[in-house]
């Protein structure tokens, strides 16, 4: 008996799809695939192919096509790789297909738009690959329905022909409820009285990220599944269309060892000053079980046509098996990114932050190529496409938690993996700028110069993007100010006069200075009866962290002493200032007043700001790099919203 397997995209029938009911004797439910297309998607797609130029007219933009361009620039066009394309039929009158091998081990070849389009798409990615074309459509059927037994036989033959990759833009649909048991999946979930819905989301995400859902599916055995299992065991990379129905899994894409390919759409938005790119479902319904997705070209309908693109990437990769090995890394990174974006960082508990951090770490550690250990040694297109998002998103995650040192390492790695991308250098510039806060001398210049270079790299790739241009100009100005300040001031000592009002304040200051490793030298009493102190790092070796240490000392000292009655903080940078830092009863507690070196006044509300944000901001102010009202006002306004620094007033 011939059993039908449906194409995962359009065919040559009037509507492209079979609509026969499920045959109850089959081990799996066979169901027609649907898209929103009113005519055969494959037929429409072929209209966009130019046989003379041997290319497609749709835009080849985005991370996938950039990775393909990288492969070609490295001389990787698929030469020496053999690929089996098992489909309904092929138009071998096209010169580009005529040079390849047609293996009709089952039904005779009947030219079809579906198989032809699939083969041509793969050749767009891997033009020097050798194709073995297996027609499997039942020519006695008016719809050219694919014969499942012929597919199984073709897979077995392809293995004997020593193919490296098999593309299957076909499959049979099985309702999710027949293969997947939510009850079994959640059997070990926490069930305490205080377990919340969000707790279960994080638990389920961890489980789904670490366990391939295929391992939980209750698949039956037949000729097709046996052939796929044998091919995977033989080391053949099998790429299959994910399928075009969100309520169904598709076989063989749902089988262990295969790569399920689909389409996605992207949405770009700016959140908190950072550019965020999120994925959306394609313009047709698609199975939720996908391993890798490609940005959907306009009007290209059906996961059938994503499969040959991913298969082509496997062909031009350094090793086709790398794509299979990348699946756990991509899965973990995907879930980490989803949790990070769905749950605002200011609402996270430490344990949830830990879950996301561990998933990101596992993603980069599960990758077959550890680029964070081997930066600059080689480039691989498969990691540029599939692993770059893991590193870039992990870098953004660490930036959000102000772990700038970690962010620098991760984002530098992202940049080395995909040097043509713009997001990683833009985010790296932010990390380097933050690392420069509280650092003085040559170290500050080095970090800011590196930030300017990274920012310039992102701007070169997106010259019309306003936020990148603003960031670059700000960094250049900050670097200029730092260099000028370095030339004007001796950078070997930080000496800041702090007015201490009474003996209780002095005792608190002395205790804190000892605890934080800052030398506090008591100065003679000032004429107004207060006690002055001179604060400086113990040794020149502490200068690099000295500004931040002094800033933390100042804020901790304020918090320990009589807060409400002694007023807010004043930082006086004017040349004739008697004291650099003091408290003023006319300034409400929770406010800072700064008198810049070049004159004027800036007032800032820090009542709601986290302590760490206040410490870092004061360190930037006392570094002396910001001399004007406009510099200081911009320093406040450029801070992320979550730092809760509010510019109250400026006056000349």
What is the first-to-last residue Cα distance?
90 Å
CATH class of the domain at 4-180 and 220-264 and 297-316: Alpha Beta
Indicate the proportion of strand residues.
15-25%
Shape: elongated
What's the architecture of the domain at 4-180 and 220-264 and 297-316, going by CATH? Answer: 3-Layer(aba) Sandwich
Instruction: Give Rg in angstroms.
Output: 31 Å
Major sheet details: 8 strands, mixed
What do we call the CATH topology of the domain at 4-180 and 220-264 and 297-316? Rossmann fold
pLDDT < 50 runs, ≥5 residues: 10-39, 372-376, 488-493, 536-545
In total, the number of strands is: 22
Overall average pLDDT = 77
- Helicity level, as a percent range? 40-55%
Structural class: alpha/beta
Number of helical runs? 23
CATH superfamily (homologous) name of the domain at 4-180 and 220-264 and 297-316: Peptidase S8/S53 domain
Description:
The chain has 652 residues and is of the alpha/beta class. Among the domains are: 4-180 and 220-264 and 297-316, Peptidase S8/S53 domain (Rossmann fold), CATH 3.40.50.200; 496-651, no CATH class. Helix content is 42%, strand content 17%. It has 23 helices and 22 strands. Strands 4, 5, 6, 8, 10, 12, 13 and 14 form an eight-stranded mixed sheet that branches. A five-stranded mixed sheet has the order 19-18-20-21-22. Strands 7-1-9-11 form a four-stranded antiparallel sheet. A hairpin with an 8-residue loop joins strand 16 and strand 17. The longest helix has 23 residues, at 466-488.
SSE order and pairing:
Elements: E1 4-7, H1 41-46, E2 49-50, E3 55-56, H2 63-73, E4 82-87, H3 95-98, E5 101-102, H4 113-125, E6 130-135, E7 146-147, H5 148-160, E8 165-168, E9 170-175, H6 176-179, H7 182-185, H8 197-210, H9 223-233, E10 237-241, E11 248-251, E12 259-271, E13 274-280, E14 292-295, H10 307-316, H11 321-342, H12 350-366, H13 381-386, H14 388-400, H15 404-417, H16 423-436, H17 441-461, H18 466-488, E15 496-500, H19 503-516, E16 518-522, E17 531-537, H20 543-560, H21 563-566, E18 568-572, E19 581-584, E20 591-595, E21 601-605, H22 611-622, H23 629-637, E22 646-651
Parallel strand pairs: 4-6, 4-8, 5-6, 8-10, 10-12, 12-14, 18-20
Antiparallel strand pairs: 1-7, 1-9, 2-3, 9-11, 12-13, 15-17, 16-17, 18-19, 20-21, 21-22
